[in-house]
Amino acid sequence: MGSDLVLYIVVATALAFDFTNGFHDTANAIATSISTRAMSPRAAVLMSAVLNFAGAFISLQVAATVAKGIVSPEAITQTIVFAGLIGAIAWNLATWWFGLPSSSSHALIGGIVGSTFVAQGASAIEGDGIVEKVIIPALIAPTLAFLVAGLAILVAYWVVGRQRPGMVNRSYRLGQLVTGSMFSLAHGTNDAQKTMGIITLALIAHGNLSPDDFAVPTWVVVSSASAIALGTYTGGWRIIRTMGSRIIKMDPAQGFSAQGAGAAVVLTASHLGFPLSTTHVISGGIMGAGAAKRLSAVRWGVAGNIALAWVLTLPCSAAIGGLAYALTSLFGAGALGVVVVGLLVIGLLGAAFGSRLRRGPAITAEA
Amino acid sequence: MLAAIEWDKIGQLLWVAPVAGLAVAVSFAMLIAGLARADDCRRAGSGVAAAAYTALGALGGLAFVGVFVFGLDIIINK
Description:
The structure holds two protein chains of two kinds.
Chain A: H1 2-35, H2 41-58, H3 78-97, H4 104-120, H5 127-160, H6 165-206, H7 218-234, H8 237-246, H9 252-271, H10 278-293, H11 300-329, H12 336-359
Helix pairs in contact in A: 1-2, 1-3, 1-6, 1-7, 1-8, 1-9, 1-10, 1-12, 2-6, 2-7, 3-4, 3-11, 4-11, 5-9, 5-10, 6-7, 6-9, 9-10, 11-12
Chain B: H1 7-43, H2 47-77
Helix pairs in contact in B: 1-2
């Protein structure tokens, strides 16, 4: 009975993480399209939500691997996964509150590293994996996207610079529909898999699925796809505003170059088996598209805050994940700790967002 | 620790990603420039030049579609 309850709570928490992943990353695909008026805000989030939902069904390579190579697989328990998810959700919500784009995958890895560290000690953490899967990609993704988007916008201005601005802008807005769609679809195939992987792991640990021969249950696929799509449709408007208009004020050619170069970098990396964070890539792409036109066009203060959030993602989500595990274990090894921490988190969220709802939304779709 | 890093993949990424990004930018810019110049030439009554620019635009459009389809293939078959 107790382990059933833990399983239900882990599944619900994984879906809650999936939801925050969706609304946190909406900006990656559509912020530039909204900023350049290629699409209306509502149409953009609807398009992105539908493609994220569809993307979740395209690839069923279970990403049980989200923590593979980072923590010892035999160290993982349902309580560790639960505490890691709490760390990731908390960091996603905190960065969303401040309108800062950050990687949901890195937050999840950080949360699980922190909870594993508290539960099993440093020996269960694989430092090589953190360097290979978090630190190196976090350095490469924004730098490479910055350079590629910078080159792309210079080429674009060189080729179309003498044409009528009206036609050029209309064409690039149309092009953004294509690049934005690619980003959304790629995001759905990548990120919904993480939640499917976590729920599948929990089902295996609970004995519902055989570890040697299993298929992802349909309800897991549908619920994960629905959670990320719903989160995407809700729209993380604070981050959309940061990426769409606070880093640079972009024209349609810059929006297309940032998105097109970003999609090229993300998909090339995916093709080579070296996945990169879509958040890091599109942020670097936007900065590159701005800096290539004029260095001072980039608000480097905003860019610095974003970089700081990236640096803090792993340690902060690890600290929260570790704290969540420590609190849970205070109540023993049963389900009580998970229930208490789960209720505590719901209460804190209710207090934080209830007061915001009573005051009205800070930022709207039209902002 | 550095031995665990897949340097060959990173090396490949560092040249393939810029090529792919430039392919997107150049093909779409060719599409726009070709069609815009073709329109200008038609208005000026220069049929041959208009046809040449239309062909350039079509080539850019085809290349852009090709890159898009390749991207879709990566997403679907990864």
